[in-house]
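thread: overnight batch results

M.L. [08:02]
morning all. the overnight job finished for the chain we discussed friday. pasting input first so we're all looking at the same thing
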Amino acid sequence: MTALTLSTAAASGLRADAIVVGVAKGAEGPVVAPGAESVDKAFDGKLATVLSTLGASGGEGEVTKLPAPSGFKAPVVLAVGLGPAPEKGEAFDADVLRRAAGTAARALAGSKKAAFALPVEGADSVSAIGEGALLGAYSFDAYKGAAKDAKAQGKAAKDDKGADKAPLAEVALLGAKPRDKAHKAAVERALAVSEELNRARDLINTPPNDLDPEAFAAVATAAGKEHGVKVQVLDEKALAKGGFGGILGVGAGSAAPPRLVKLSYTSPKAKKHLAFVGKGITYDSGGISLKPAGHNETMKCDMAGAAAVFAAVVAAARLGLEVNVTGWLALAENMPSGSATRPGDVLRMYSGKTVEVLNTDAEGRLVLADALTKASEDKPDAIVDVATLTGAMVLALGDRTFGIMANDDAFRASLHEIAEEVGEPSWPMPMPEHLRKGMDSPTADIANMGARMGGGLVAGLFLKEFVGEGITWAHLDIAGPAFNEAAPFGYTPKGGTGSAVRTLVRLAERTAAGDLG
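M.L. [08:03]
and the structure it wrote out:
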């Protein structure tokens, strides 16, 4: 993990591989952002002119490198674009700073140390810049021997296809105050959240032959011991004894049996209790309703919801939040075999309801249903489930935005506000009651499929059936943003992204502060 420090040192005297400055897009060309005054002064106040000459405009995500001025101990100045300059008297948005820091950290892969002289307006900007740098510096190289060796040595390595560089090793935040309590707390928060989010990314990126339900449960158990989170694991025998027909039905075709993992973080000062439920299909072949080629290559990411829940609970524990948080990881592998659930089979769920399985590739809602029912028994103040649930949601919102459904409009609005606040694009979605009829079954209480149009909404209506009466509940469908198959951008890498982790953590923080009911 990249080291993160606060520094009041002058940019000119700091030993580093690069000084990072911000440049915004002004009405008449690039504008040097606050925080880089001493660097601009060393260029005789003409840094913006030099950058413009080099083709920089200040557009978001733009990176321009130039030699540092004479007398600087760092050899390079890296200017990162912040996008449009804010109105006079206004500060840069936190996620603008987060994305810029992530872009700079990615551009400086292979470097040992960089000093970030970006706009620091207060603790929130310290946290945003710290998070962006730590998340942008992420790399997953556990299966690349040369890259792994380079990471250990802190230098670049090359493979047959080009350069694979070790992540930026250290970030010094200039303008932040090491003795300021708010600034120190902001850095500690950034470290805790980023480390757990990056752990979620690691899990999502791990090949399914190395991360089956049992292995995932073992990771959760180890983390629980380290951070004071109580962990309970229900294996296939306990699931059968308890009547968890949904989880068992999905895992029936795999040689790797399912698990239901409960993570409990409790605070002696807590007044509220949140439950997070995560879909954890460690590999989704579609089962008997087999996915075609071109649709199954990235299905190791179908446990991203469980990874987000796991990371959020551990982060809440590390931050010592005054709220009780319970996480439920519904883990199974969906495979075809002679023992697999067939289309037309009927499963008796943990709730006692029966479900006719019309499509074995609509399996996530089956494992979530059992976990939602179980989570409801604790009577939490609210339940939020997170899942890479439907391709329909990707068609509706694209690959960077997750959908939010809920049985309470105010709670849905709060989650949307929180997600946008932390820089996770989201959109509130409806739950039209007329779509429920499409799941009527002549054989069972409900079918696991309904109308094709509005499939993401149908899935949400199915889940709603298994939430305890009177419990506030929301569903986050992260199928789009959970796994980035395109090029990296901002602080988002290629592969697992850790979508929804920061939303869940902020929800826990606001609940602890009494800001949510």
